[in-house]
Backbone:
């Protein structure tokens, strides 16, 4: 097998080539053309499909999870249909789209309540399984560590102005660009109680920030943050910073519940 790393293969043509089982990481394929290509069983993670057109495609038993906006299937925009169905399945999901300070406070109260139940459920697992991945996704512990990073990034750095609020156990997303000075220890194996102590501290910070929101502060931009990190240096809308936190908390709890189902089955 041939490995390609750091090479520019732009404009290359692959015809009658067998790439079965090939691995593509940090690859740019924008503008690429695929014709009569067998992608059955392929897995995409952290991929950007903006502006992709598929014609004559055969989609059978396909599972898509991600941010979907403007997806048309046979001429039908399915985005609103998906949103409506997700809201039907999870009635509290609509509260994650608040428009005023009280709405943000209600949304955060919902998240704290739901996460309490998820954590209590996780305590019923063998502690070893809390570090186990399901389907290549983050373990339960890694999910909690990522949410520590989310709070540090969007609340402590962006809103509160600390240029380097990072904890050593915080975990950026896997496809993140290089973030100088930001801890990124995927090999750490902290206990559940250690991570929960961090989570309680960060959740209290979010609760305090949201508790003090006014119409004016919610509509404002943050003071410019300096220094390397995430989000990038500059000013950011407070509303969008908090919405990012709500979205991350909501989605990752659903992922965690899904994986807990598999882990409990594995535990027997």
Residues:
């Amino acid at each position: 097998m041939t490995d390609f790393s750091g090479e520019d293969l732009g404009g290359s043509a692959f015809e009658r080539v067998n790439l079965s089982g090939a691995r593509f990481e940090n690859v740019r394929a924008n503008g690429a053309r695929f014709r009569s290509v067998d992608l059955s069983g392929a897995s995409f993670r952290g991929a950007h499909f903006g502006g992709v057109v598929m014609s004559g495609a055969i989609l059978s038993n396909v599972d898509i999870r991600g941010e979907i906006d403007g997806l048309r299937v046979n001429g039908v925009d399915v985005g609103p249909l998906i949103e409506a169905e997700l809201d039907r399945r999870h009635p509290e999901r609509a509260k994650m789209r608040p428009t005023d300070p009280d709405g943000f406070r209600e949304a955060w109260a919902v998240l704290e309540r739901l996460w309490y139940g998820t954590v209590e459920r996780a305590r019923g697992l063998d502690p070893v399984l809390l570090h186990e991945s399901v389907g290549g996704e983050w373990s339960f512990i890694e999910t909690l560590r990522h949410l520590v990073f989310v709070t540090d990034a969007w609340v402590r750095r962006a809103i509160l102005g600390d240029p380097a609020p990072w904890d050593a156990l915080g975990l950026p997303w896997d496809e993140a660009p290089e973030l100088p000075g930001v801890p990124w220890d995927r090999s750490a194996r902290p206990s559940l109680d250690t991570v929960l102590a961090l989570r309680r501290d960060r959740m209290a910070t979010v609760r305090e920030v949201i508790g003090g929101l006014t119409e004016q502060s919610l509509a404002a931009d943050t003071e410019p943050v300096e220094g390397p990190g995430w989000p990038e240096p500059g000013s950011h809308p407070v509303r969008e910073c908090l919405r990012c936190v709500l979205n991350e908390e909501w989605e990752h709890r659903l992922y965690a519940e899904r994986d807990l189902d598999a882990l409990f089955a594995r535990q027997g």
